[in-house]
């Protein structure tokens, strides 16, 4: 289990927002006065390779390129990734590209598109974002297009394992708790802890070290995690330096 840092970009700035409000009246938890390379260099200093640069909407290309240039090979990148721009992002310094909406069309996972993209960049450089929420039937399904469109892809350990043929990792955002600092989604973590064939990173709701320990237990010690709004470097109360000290031997 490792900490994966994140640099979320919105309107060209490093921000922490409530993801479910993207495209609506955006709720901002934090807007940084520091540029993306500041955070990239911070995470590089502390050895947290494998973090995510996420472009939330348009107008973030220059900021993303700055972050990637500060640590070539240190970050994955997501947000609007498609066949047309994936190779460019890798050339800009990303270790992997993270894809969601491009491979989900009309509420379904388009395996033809997924295979084409996997063949283009190489499965070892592709991550699939399975941002998901629970429906009335009590099951989790992927949501796409800025978390506005339900898909019929049910998130289970078995369905995630099937994706190992096409990608290197999956990134799972728990939509209902993401950006709210109200605690993690234990149910989805129990699912992720049963995944066997592919690396998984969990994102959503981490607020303190107790939540990290819960991720360790429910994720069977193999699910990585991200923290955003809760960290003091992003305006929260959780000490980043304390996190580094506590997880010293669990670098990315």
Overview of this structure, please?
The protein has 252 residues and is an alpha/beta fold. It is 27% helix and 25% strand. The chain has a single domain (6-246), classed as Alpha-Beta Barrel (TIM Barrel). The protein has a 10-stranded mixed β-sheet. The chain has a 3-stranded antiparallel β-sheet with strand order 10-11-12, with no helix packed on it. A two-stranded antiparallel ribbon has the order 7-8. It is globular. The mean pLDDT is 93.
The portion of residues assigned to helices is 25-40%
Q: Helix count, per DSSP?
A: 8
Structural class by helix and strand composition: alpha/beta
What is the arithmetic mean of pLDDT?
Answer: 93
* CATH arch. level architecture: Alpha-Beta Barrel
Q: What is the topology, as strand order, of the major beta sheet?
A: 3-2-1-4-5-6-9-13-14-15
Radius of gyration, in angstroms, nearest whole number: 17 Å
Enumerate the spans where pLDDT stays under 50 for 5 or more consecutive residues.
Answer: none
Shape: globular
How many independent structural domains?
A: 1
Offer a concise description of the structure.
By secondary structure, the chain is an alpha/beta fold. Helix content is 27%, strand content 25%. The strands form 3 sheets. It has a 10-stranded mixed sheet with strand order 3-2-1-4-5-6-9-13-14-15. A 3-stranded antiparallel sheet has the order 10-11-12, with no helix packed on it.
List the SSEs and their pairings.
Blueprint: E1 6-10, E2 13-17, E3 28-31, H1 36-45, E4 51-55, H2 61-70, E5 75-78, H3 86-91, E6 96-99, E7 104-105, E8 108-109, H4 111-121, E9 126-129, E10 132-134, E11 140-144, E12 149-154, H5 157-162, E13 169-173, H6 186-192, E14 199-203, H7 209-218, E15 223-225, H8 240-246
Parallel strand pairs: 1-4, 4-5, 5-6, 6-9, 9-13, 13-14, 14-15
Antiparallel strand pairs: 1-2, 2-3, 7-8, 10-11, 11-12
């Amino acid at each position: 289990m490792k900490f994966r840092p994140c640099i979320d970009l919105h309107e060209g700035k490093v921000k922490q927002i409530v993801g479910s409000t993207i495209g609506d009246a955006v709720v901002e938890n934090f807007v940084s006065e520091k540029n993306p390379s500041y955070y990239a260099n911070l995470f590089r200093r502390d050895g947290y390779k494998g973090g995510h640069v996420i472009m939330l909407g348009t107008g973030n290309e220059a900021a993303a390129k700055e972050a990637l240039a500060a640590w070539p090979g240190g970050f994955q990148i997501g947000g609007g990734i498609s066949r047309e721009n994936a190779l460019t992002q890798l050339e800009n310094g990303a270790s992997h590209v993270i894809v969601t909406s491009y491979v989900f069309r009309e509420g379904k996972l388009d395996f033809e598109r997924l295979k084409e993209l996997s063949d283009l960049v190489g499965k070892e450089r592709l991550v699939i974002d399975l941002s998901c929420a629970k429906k009335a039937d009590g099951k989790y399904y992927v949501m796409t297009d800025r978390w506005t469109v339900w898909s019929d892809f049910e998130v289970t350990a078995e369905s995630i394992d099937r994706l190992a043929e096409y990608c290197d990792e999956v990134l799972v955002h728990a939509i209902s708790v993401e950006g709210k600092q109200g605690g993690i989604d234990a149910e989805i973590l129990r699912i992720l802890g049963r995944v066997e064939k592919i690396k998984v990173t969990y994102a959503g709701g981490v607020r303190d070290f107790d939540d990290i320990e819960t991720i360790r237990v429910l994720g069977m010690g193999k699910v990585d995690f991200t923290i955003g709004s809760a960290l003091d470097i992003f305006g929260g109360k959780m000490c980043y330096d304390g996190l580094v000290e506590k997880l010293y031997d669990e670098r990315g």
